[in-house]
Amino acid sequence: MPGMTMTQAALTEKSDRQAPGASTAAVRRTMVERQLRPFDVTDLPILERVLDVPREAFLPADLAPLAYSDMAIVLKDGAGKARGLLPPLVLARLLQGADIRPGDRVLEIGGAGYAAALLSGLCAETVSLECDAALAKSAEEGLAAVGASAKVVVGPLEKGVPDAAPFDAILVLGAVEDGLDALFGQLAPNGRLLAVTAAPVTGSSQVVRYERHAGLAAGERALFDAAARVLPGFAREPAFAL
User: Domain range holding 71?
Assistant: First the structure.
């Protein structure tokens, strides 16, 4: 195609022949070119997954028109409480920062199904943890609709899924103020954990990658700025004041 690189042409051809979500294939391609690439998401397998997976399959009908917006979407859980979803460009860059490998076992937390669908084509095994039964059911239905393979588990987000550990990567897809200790214990010896955390000096939110080597803490690195709602179970307990 004139003006396109071979990689861009391949991605375009792939999106055009996609059957599920074919009506939004062009919108997904536009999102890749105008949102993800300018945000330094360049990993080809991740871009292919974004083109493959219709995000609207994981949203209620009234929010489907916002599926490819660059804004965070707020869902309601079974109790009517708000749950924020990371915008696709933030999620894609977080996945890129996690260095997901084909043989990895990955735990994703709070992604409402869409992140698990992307991961299902990038790693060997994906476990998706939700604390709300209604969101878990919606995630399972979306995964089935797009033909993605991932195990959805219901339980406290901060507790992880110890019965399925260890994981090569754990992705907390929302903001955390506290409560990562149990998750660190579920990492493989050379695993990594990514979450949106508050920077101690500026107070701004950043996606941070925590690493383990031989089972011990091996450092942490801020990857990029990103705002997100605090996920259930990860809020800091209020300090006692006299």
Answer: 6-225
